[in-house]
Write a structure and sequence with these properties.
Layout: E1 3-9, H1 14-28, E2 32-36, E3 49-55, H2 67-76, E4 84-91, H3 101-111, E5 115-116, E6 121-124, H4 132-142
Parallel strand pairs: 1-2, 1-3, 3-4, 4-5, 4-6
């Protein structure tokens, strides 16, 4: 089956919970899915698919734990043309920067050649107090394609 890296950007833990649930669901289907809270481009090179699960922090920023990865991509411009990705963004629609943090990372990896394999999901914690539910439903819609 497919090797999948789940890159997690989290401040309060919601993204990490979602990533853990996704990992369990993908593993049960026979995929090798590994979560990364401190991802580095070189350690992800063997994964053809990245699932990015990230919240937005502050005024539309990425969470602190994934910012070093973002900076590494921005500075080194690695060739990511072999990488497919999917984005699960978590945010609070009461902020005008709703789900904007992960968009910065997506823009950077697309500039380096990575391609989306599915439309992103933006989970609003105002409407979905258990964000794992819509995230797993989204994953279920396309997991058979990988």
């Amino acid at each position: 089956m497919t090797q999948i890296a789940i890159l997690v950007g989290t401040t309060l833990g919601s993204s990490e919970y979602i990533a853990d649930e996704m990992q369990a669901q993908l593993t049960s289907l026979g995929h090798q899915a590994d979560c990364y809270l401190d991802p580095k481009v070189d350690e992800l090179s063997s994964y053809p698919l990245w699932i990015i699960v990230s919240s937005t922090h502050g005024a539309g920023d990425l969470p602190d734990n994934i910012q070093p990865f973002y900076k590494q991509v921005m500075v080194n411009n690695p060739d990511l043309s072999r990488i497919s990705f999917a984005l699960c963004a978590i945010g609070d629609s009461s902020y005008d920067t709703f789900c904007q943090g992960p968009e910065k990372l997506i823009e950077a990896i697309e500039f380096c050649g990575a391609k989306a394999i599915v439309d992103k999901i933006q989970i609003d914690v105002q409407q979905d107090p258990v964000p794992e539910d819509p995230a797993l439903a989204w994953l279920s819609q396309w997991q058979d394609q990988i």
